[in-house]
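Async update (no meeting this week)

Hi team, since we skipped the sync, here's where things stand on the single-chain job. The sequence we agreed to prioritize is pasted below, unchanged from the tracker. I ran it this morning and attached the output directly underneath so nobody has to dig for it. Comments welcome in thread, and please keep replies under the output.
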Amino acid sequence: MGQVRTVYASAIFELAKEENKLKDFYEEIESLYDVFKSERELLNIFKTPVIPSAEKKQVLETLFKGKISNQLLNFLKLLVDKGRIQNILGISESFFELYREESNIILAEVYTIEKLNKDTEASLIKKLSELTGKQVKINQIIDKEIIGGIKIKIGSKIIDSSALYKLNKLSESLHEVSL
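Output:
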């Protein structure tokens, strides 16, 4: 499945570059991704082999005509024709990776117990940009289990200053001390 998503993502990425519409395609694909991710029933309609391709393409026309570019609408129809529309989320994620790489953007997953305020988020983005030498886009994840503090994951690197991490380290240290 990974190769399928990469092939289709690369194709739409190259089209976006040729058309000089990379940012526009990114925003449209991001909107499509949100729709298909939040409306699982819609994705299930496209997965079922019982519904003919012509009807699936009509649903796409009804939902997206005038809301996304004709190129992307035609791309979705192509995915229906090829029986690959069920891969739209993976294709989108691969497209996002290609876009970020092309645009020198890195994704940081930020785990906190509550949503960061705008000032803190802006400060964190600035600091992470300085550390990585890239533009940083934050995907904030609320995680009550970390108790407090913050955990940041960028690629395979993790910066963990959460209270849970510190408590676990303290616990390990106490177990090493023989009484």
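Quick observations from my side:
The longest helix spans residues 2-18.
Helices lie at 2-18, 22-38, 40-47, 53-64, 70-81, 88-102, 118-132, 163-176.
Reply here if anything looks off.
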